[in-house]
Amino acid sequence: MIRWALCCVTLSGPALAGGHEMDQFPVFGHVANVAADDVLNIRMSPDAGSEIYGTLAPNQRDIEIVAQDDSGNWGLVNSGEGSGWVHLNFIDIPDQPKWHSFERALSCYGAEPFWDFTLDVGAKDAVYVGYDSQSTAYYVDWLTDIAARVGGIIGLGAGDAQNGFSALIENQMCHDGMSDRESALRIRLFLHQDGTSYGLDGCCNIVP
Question: Are 116 and 107 spatial neighbours (Cβ–Cβ below 8 Å)?
Fold first, then answer.
């Protein structure tokens, strides 16, 4: 019998929070307790009777979980151009560092215009790729959290008003407006060039 799981519904941030710590997500998990000839269903809502949106293979690893429901039994994952719910009885979530330790790289993106921004492991180097596919590399000069709010909000930057960036990354449910995918991290990115600055709003995911 095909195992339970869940998918694709867009909810507000507070509804997805499920009472977890501000920086509990995103995390990676692996499919577990599913037979080799079976699959784990992704469902439209956190309910075993909900419509099936997609499936995960029984040996699938490094699945980014971006939120859990209020019961703590279901986790929100992305699949294709949407997101949905899997039952956490079938997901093994090993101990792992928080996203803001930057022991994993971050991949950030936005739309209107389309752009990408990546931070490498250790958050020492960043690369911005604009809608024109031109890339700009930066060496990160500073990175800090907010006093008395350790973890959930990180500021960082590089360069100066002639050539640089400033960014704020925080735990906040985020989607790009072009798909139904969800992220646990939101970025506000400010690019500085020749004394002029402009801002971009987007989402980030951890990289396996």
Answer: yes
- Judge whether 115 lies within some domain: yes
Distance of alpha carbon 27 from alpha carbon 206, whole angstroms = 8
Whether residues 105 and 175 share a domain: the answer is yes
Q: Do the strands 63-68 and 27-31 form a parallel or antiparallel pair, or are they unpaired?
A: antiparallel
Q: Are residues 34 and 107 in the same domain?
A: no
pTM to 2 decimals?
0.87
* Residues 103 and 81 occupy one common structural domain: no
Burial 4-31 (b: 16+ CB within 10 A, else e): bbbbbbebeeeebbbeeeebbbbbbbeb
Q: What does the alpha-carbon distance between residue 73 and residue 6 come to, in Å, rounded to a whole number? A: 11
Round the CA-based radius of gyration of the chain to a whole number and report it.
Answer: 18
pLDDT in tens, the chain (208 residues): 233 333 333 333 333 334 457 799 999 999 999 999 999 999 999 999 999 999 999 999 999 999 999 999 999 999 999 999 999 999 999 999 999 999 999 999 999 889 999 999 999 999 999 999 999 999 999 999 988 777 789 999 999 999 999 999 999 999 888 888 999 999 999 999 999 999 999 999 999 9
